[in-house]
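Pinned message: reference record for Leucine aminopeptidase
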Amino acid sequence: MAPVDPHSFTDSTHPLTTHISLTFYFDFPSSTISSATLLSLPTPYTGPLTLDTRSLSVSSVIDPLSLSPLPFSLSQLDPILGQSLTISLSNQTQVLILSKTSPSSSALQWLSPPQTFNKTHPFVYTQCQSIHARSIFPCQDTPVARVKYAAKLNIPRQLSAVMAARHVERRAPLPSEVQGVCEDSVWCGDDRVVEEFVMEQPIPPYLFAFAVGELGSREVGPRTKVYAEGVPEVLDSAAREFAGTEEMILVGERLFGPYDWERFDLLVLPPSFPYGGMENPRMVFLTPTVIKGDASGAQVVAHELAHSWTGNLITNKNNDHFWLNEGFTTYAERRIVEAVQGEDIAALNIGIGWRGLVEEMERFKDNMEFTKLRTNQAGVDPDDVYSQVPYEKGFQFLWRIERQIGRPAFDDFLKKYIATFKFQSIDTDMFLNFLKANVPGIENEIDLKLWTEGTGIPPDAMEPVSNIYSKIVSLANEFKLGRMPREDEVADWKGQEWELYLENLPKSVEASQVTALDARYHLSESKDYEVRVGFLQLAISARCRDYYGVVEKTLKEVGRMKYLRPLYTALVQGAGKDEEKVFARRVFTEACDCYHPIAQGVADAILAKHA
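Predicted structure (tokens):
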């Protein structure tokens, strides 16, 4: 076997799937999906075909033309990769697999009515990055295998579905399309409806996405609707927050070339969504925590929009090269933010990222492999080592190249890079070769090997230069001397300014200083989770147990890993934390049913390591 990806059973000697046709029957009472997966290969193939699965029960594999069964076997369970499904083909171009998801599918979160905003209907949504598509349907779950797909979702009539694909129609179920996923009478029940979608551009499997629930929408631009649960206040606040989306798309097109995905719709998910956003093409998924009421949440939208070029059009070959997705996108996001919101806001964004990068160096001090841009993740769960390094060190590398050759030349280079590699999956060497070919002599000016293969932060990385950034950092330094910022100094601060201030405060402060800061500025009550969580980390490190009630409330009302990871870590890391460890374990036990499986795993790993 010659693997193409440390996180996939896909064999480089086997053909890659080009199209997948999916038939799904959603059974909310059992939290399962019964599915028929029709895989198409580029040419007739004889030999073994190996696919990725995780927590799937495979009932049969069929030749769709002759309807005869095909021999298949499932491997032993690998704790990271799942199980390989190997099928023996004999001159076939297509194979049909019948399978069923497990209620514990790592990609799916099933929410009962009480866990939703309206408390009336259930809800289910996906999160397939990095390696979770395989827990919904068998596939070559690697970014190397870009596929087009079609999908029929059979769901309860009172619900509706969205996908990261073009919506074809909503209609009554037909007995001719069942494909063996269930009985005809069940498929065609009076209470059922079929939503049909098609994705006509080849995407990596981690960008496969859907959500099913009681959904409403608001139009916010010529290419953009905002979807969310059908709650007017959620939809209205989202529409206000993201009103400037079309302007950002136009800026993106000016910087990076045409927007190739037709629609740029947004879905605001329930609070359990584990990420800030997920760049699913045509239908970006967002946490409700980005709706802050001051349009700063639009920066997350700018990041997911930038992925439309870097990540979705050009994709990392595998997770060892994740920086090609996220470093480029962080750079592109900041260019869009600078154009739309101004240089000062972009500098704040860079400054917050810089502090995050410095903190990751501390996190990985015992395993510096994961401070590199090009990593070796063989035998490692990508969710466990997910960090700001590929984002912020990747950004710093590209910003360093921009400083070297000048922005106009770098802009031309970026456009050419995107045009050259679009709809391809590439690795670090392919990027570096392209860079050296198009910017002759760059390797004599910048140590490309140090940047991509070295650990830590290279000496020619830099903090942003801006008056507002310098002022906030110096105010944070004065806090160490006991001086709190005056009200006139922070009068025009929004969430980002406070976030940067809190990130730059010393890690060890007196409990009295923490309570005094909160008494004046009420940071523990902030509606902006970045600010609230930044303050609560400070309170935990100062052992201000008065705030543990707010910590508990926060850990129980959101499932975004950006907040769970630092709060649980602050509670359990370090000596003499016995009381905190008991508290953290209790809160996790009570809250974990409300977290997505990916977030459950991350929080559980933190507690297992320290508590």
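Pinned by admin. Summary line: The mean pLDDT is 96.
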